[in-house]
Amino acid sequence: MKKFTLLLAFILIVTFQSCTVNETAPINTVDNDTISEVWEYNRSFTTTNNFSNLITYPHAIYTSDMVLVYRLSGITGGNDIWKLLPEAYYFNSGVLDFRYDFDFTRYDVNIFMEGFDLAGVSSSYRANQILRVVVIPGFFGNKMANTVDFNDYNAVAKAYNINPEKVLKIK
Fold first, then answer.
1. What residue segments make up the domains of the chain, in order of their start?
2. pLDDT tens digits for 99-124?
3. How far is residue 159 CA from its own chain's centroid?
4. In the 3-class helix/strand/coil scheme, how is the chain assigned residue by residue?
5. Which residues partner with 38 through β-bridges?
6. What's the sign of the alpha-carbon dihedral 157, 158, 162, 165?
């Protein structure tokens, strides 16, 4: 009986020893040092560059970052009008005339035109296009994706604390 009691006591000690509770303070999930970035480029789309511009970032971005590209489509009342890519233009018949689109990696973004007769597209849509590449850290992008209208550059700038004076203009 002594051996059985000793064995039972040993089993209980081992069992209760493995049941521990680690009480820790909750981890702060607010990222106070990550910022969104905006780089501005002036590019032309020509037959020489096959209506495409491969733009290298000033530095690599994280694989989780989100990239948005906007094109300056005009100015109204002194305010810039930015359009989110992809951006499409159609003939009156409803057939696609041309469009701007992009793809990106951690190191660069390729902004290009696609369409029916790109050489015939007015130079006002091809030459000296002002393009803004907006990099949003993945944590913020995923957290706020349903609350920000990405079509509205000003709403994006406000939501992600983008300072217009800190837009890096790259030649």
1. 37-170
2. 999 999 999 999 999 998 999 999 99
3. 13
4. CHHHHHHHHHHHHHHHHHCCCCCCCCCCCCCCCCCCEEEEEEECCCCCCCCEEEEECCCCCCCCCEEEEEEEEEEECCEEEEEECCEEEECCCCCEEEEEEEEECCCEEEEEEEECCHHHCCHHHCCCEEEEEEEECHHHHHHHCCCCCCCCHHHHHHHCCCCHHHCEEEC
5. 134
6. positive
List the structure tokens of 68.
């948005």
On whether the CB atoms of residues 150 and 143 are closer than 8 A, the answer is no
Separation of first and last alpha carbons in the chain: 89
Measure the CA dihedral 121/39/62/51, to 10°.
20
pTM: 0.76
What tens digit of pLDDT does each residue of 12-68 get? 565 666 555 555 544 444 445 557 899 999 999 999 999 999 999 999 999 999 999
Q: Closest by alpha carbon to 50, among 108, 111, 125?
A: 111
Asked if the model's pLDDT at residue 3 lies above 90, the reply is no
Q: Which of 66, 65, 117 is nearest to 91 (CA)?
A: 117
Spatial CA neighbour of 129 closest among 96, 87, 79:
87
